[in-house]
Amino acid sequence: MDQLIGLLGYEFVQNALAAGLVIAIVAGIVSRFVVARNMSFAVHAISELGFTGSAGFILLRWSPVLGLLVGSAITALFIGTLGVRVRERDAVVGVVMAFGLGLGVLFITLYKGYANTAFALLFGTITGVSRGDVALLGGIGVVTLVALAIIYRPLLFATVDPEVAEARGVPIRALAVAFLLIMAAAVSEAIQVVGVLLILTLLITPGAAAERLTQRPGQATLYSMGIALFCTIGGILVSLVTNAPVSVFVTTLSFVAYLVARFAVGPALQRGASRRPAIEGP
Amino acid sequence: MAGPAVTFDAVTLEYGERLIWSDLSLEVAAGSFVAILGPNGAGKTSLLKAILGLVAPSTGRIEVLGEAPRRGAPAIGYVPQHQSFDRDLPLRGRDLVRMGIDGHHWGLPMPDPVTSARVARAIASVDAATYADGPIGRLSGGELQRLRIAQALVGEPRLLLCDEPLASLDLRYQQGITDLIAGWRRDAGGTVLFVTHDVNPVLGLVDRVVFVVNGRWTEGTPDEVLTSERMTNLYGSHVDVVRVHGRVLVVGESTDSGFNVDEPHHVPEPTLVGHDIDR
Q: CATH number of the domain at B6-212, out of 3.40.1400.10, 3.40.1080.10, 3.40.50.2300, 3.40.50.300?
């Protein structure tokens, strides 16, 4: 404990925690919609092609964070403008994702000192972020949160009840593309903590766990955010003490959170909810 | 009330190459109850989508409550075809009904006592208060349909569009749902367009029926339309309309079972059809 309090005095620790805070809030809210909209595969594709973008930018000696953002945003737009048929879309995304990731491997190989960079991108590097990175991540985070706040209500409507939402004038297609771009920003942020390969631990697990904890849509979003915060901040702190990579602990904490929500808290809540008076039959 | 609620003037609708219906002319008087009948895939839902402004006709003119159709017109309530929700979706009936008021507004949903009171009244008016706070994915078809009607009516529309609201409900719940819709029409003086494959449960309520088959249509009072002559003409093959025990059956000549009222989702074209009609 003393060791931890001592560590909090270091700038790199403060940077990591500040960045982690913003990232977790964004990832938690986005995760809730990723789960509700069944978009796990899209998250994965956006993440892997974000890696390609970042590797390309590193090769050109530009900002890797901006590279991530550009790579993932292009992927998001690509997915958003493809045909509406889910089956076809998944196939095309898979095809492009595989090629794009291969290209990323090439970029990272061409860059001298690739091993560290590749490892950081693939598995996260939050304790290495600079003041400048924190400002950039904070900026992206704030813009993303503002965008989410603006579209929150119609996005929820379009997600749970698309037919009536469309009839009520909600622009379903435009919202789908807007949400993909928000997802791209969230992916770029979360990669800083857990890396490209473990992205789902922050963009699926909190939302999936939160769904088990409540039947109210607003609470589910808040719980998802809370779980993402717990995993991210908890993971960073444990990593500081143990010196093992942050990703190890974020993934562990989020897995535990899911198990607890699914098998302990969730079933208890359901038993409570089923004690309502039955008025109509089955 | 001035003017018809809905006017179709020589309207043709196509999806790409496929003709849905052609040259449809129709006037729905304000305050009337109109059933839209026909086999599945006949374009009944498309008719509602055209009124909602979600599909544009290739030719002709549509007018809804005195205006061209536009998305999100607040004076239209819409009950979509039954689709159940995921069991674990965090959403309550109360949330679904509230979306009927402000789900389409931008921004975050803020607690608002006035809106909550409106939602509570709408839920009470369909007798759904006992289950409106449970997860929506675990309601029965009848319970969900009541909340759907509350969602459609909470915005105080003047025109209610219902797409197969009785499908997948057993007779007891069908009666409850038709009573709700009839009650709203009586109290609020609204207009009802009711898409159904089976006119039976609403025959006592409907003023006029529109029957759509294979891109063609016919329209009139139930007694005018549901005759052997009109149906044979419409289907282009011999069809009998038979009245037995106070019920009217519409029977296609090559329909194996005679009538197939209970199989709305597999009506063979163009043979159809049993419309089981109670008087």
A: 3.40.50.300
